[in-house]
Request: fold
Amino acid sequence: MQADAIRVDGCTITPETLDNWRRGRSGIQAEVGAFLASWWSNTPTLSLQTSGSTGRPKVLQATRAAMAASAAATCRAFQLQAGHTALLCLPMRYIAGQMMVVRALVGGLHLITTEPASTPLAGMRNPVDFAPMVPMQVVSTLAQPGGRRALERIGVLLLGGGFIDSGLEESLQRLRTQVYASYGMTETLSHIALRAVNGPRRSALYTPLPGIRLSLAPGGTLQVEASYLETGLLTTNDLAEITPDGSFRILGRADAVINSGGVKIQAEALEQELQQRTGLQVLALPMPHPVLGQCVALLWEGPAEAENTLRTACAELPRYHQPKQLHRCTLPRTGSGKPARAEASSLLARLTPA
Reply:
């Protein structure tokens, strides 16, 4: 099946039949129809919405050729072929959902849609070959009766858009499903690197897809170059280490560093450590300090009775890493489920006593 036709929920759609198929559609199907109308239009580029995880969301432009090249790279990486089934359970307003439609167009995949939700596999009984999900969806699915069996009806599960904590990663070791974590962003048109989360190829390092060239900027942030990216050399905000064989690990975001008395604290690493110790969702943020310049403040989400556990874990941290303030709240998140750090900083300012 070529890019002028796609199979969605058992219906074959072409540019000629799209309008008729869209009539009466709602929810995720209506959003797929709107995207296909843009894809098959005469506009030179498509608009992509960033998630706004570290700042204000913005709109980027990308060509169909670039998006198709990225989709083809994914199909090759996972050996997806025409007729394979792929699950779309992510919001269509972001790159992750849009690229699922492009992969179906380019690879001739049969797209199965379900409304984006915390438990998107509820009610599904048929197996699928390929399904991208965010970690929150997998955690929620595993917590449901029959959730593990539902996940094992997926051939390849691709996780992106959020941190995979150690508890979830260990739970995934018992799945028969092949699980991969992805690295990428809207600017790279979805993922440009993968790592196996379970199975014999399990690794803590990401491996770039063929054709992706990586380097480090002078400040230690990852730089990405790919033939299909119109931006040329893209400098990210992600601090990274690149090994001699070309694989890499992400250390955290450069804009999430807290400089406390000259000690540079990587907020995301601190969050991961506290989440692993307590099982709580936390956000570490910089707060002005009259002597240190900045200190750590912590927003956390969970039952009130868990505060003593969190305070004990914080007291065991190195001195400068210990939060000066803790605030229990509902953590701000983007529409794709990522921590909304800019919104969280505003919330912290409102919660901090004058």
About this structure: The first strand starts at residue 6 and ends at 8. The CA atoms of residues 131 and 191 lie 14 Å apart. The two ends are 62 Å apart (CA to CA).
